[in-house]
Amino acid sequence: MEDFSFLLTVAIVILSTKFLGEASEKVHMPQVVGALIAGVILGPSVLGVVTETDFLAKSSEIGVIILMFIAGLDTDLKEIKKNAVSFVVIALCGVLLPLVGGFCGYYFFFDVDMANSSEVLKAVFMGVILTATSVSITVEALREMGKLSGPVGNAILGAAVLDDIIGIIILTIVTSMKDPSISIAVVCIKILLYAVAMAVLAFILTRFRNKIDGLKEKRRISIYVIALVLAVSYASEEYFGIADITGAYMVGVILSTFKVRSDIAKKMTVPSYLFFSPIFFASIGIKTQLDGMTTQLFIFSLLLLVIAILTKIVGCGLGARLCKYNSHEALCIGLGMVSRGEVALIVAQKGYAMGLLSGDLFSPIVLVVIITTIITPILLKKVMK
Prior knowledge:
mainly alpha
């Protein structure tokens, strides 16, 4: 007999995220914070009412893809072209400092022997996890404040895309040390080919800009666009090893200069707001499983949390200051890059599968992911006032 319990699960998730989202807004916090807390409460760490299922995981993935596509539509392409060098500098600083911080935190806390190459590699991988940035939460918070298309919003989004690519290269280098079958050269070639593929896609779509903008029947455009977004997201992961959300964001950026942008954004926002986004935000909290947390691991979690927050704020903030952003903008950019979200969890999962991360260290990482994801929009809203 077919199981229809997933319908009740979705109903509970949507209602709880909306209820706690509105409650968060009443205490002057972004709605996304309430949605994240709802996931933690519903998940195995508190009530255990909802567990992660294949349906929720896939719906969540579609949710973050749509969210990042809409963020791409809201991106000011002229601002990105004008500040491309700044975004590269911010991304580099925002990757290198957490990488060093994560390595040092693991190395000194567990007193790693330099002669033990396996343990040294694990320390490096801890740094790799902290290089991850998940701006999907930040995107929602910035949109609520109307700051997504400003200089700070564009800097965060532009740097985060580059952050993702740099992180993939570093992850590949580290995993190749563990698995000789992975070629660094092949990965670099794939990244270059991906850049070429995105340029070709941009050329083709721009070539037909007048026809697309001139269509009298605009209702079907969103259907074609979402199909394109999902196809590009799939190709990004499957053929180039680039995160699917990067592909979705790039399609949004390409279409951001089209006249039909507002029509597409309006139609795409409805399913995102009603269904996919609540499931995505709640799923992060649902993933939380803090059982098996010893005193030593709890102390390491706190250390890792401090490192995770400070290295992104200082690293990205320093990069922003080097690129002539003022102190307040630099602080906002640093805060906006603090959230680790699902990206860190994916990296951690890959490391676990390759033996670069022991199972007992998942709890500290999950704790860091949840807290950085929750506090990022809160701090960002307070600072950006």
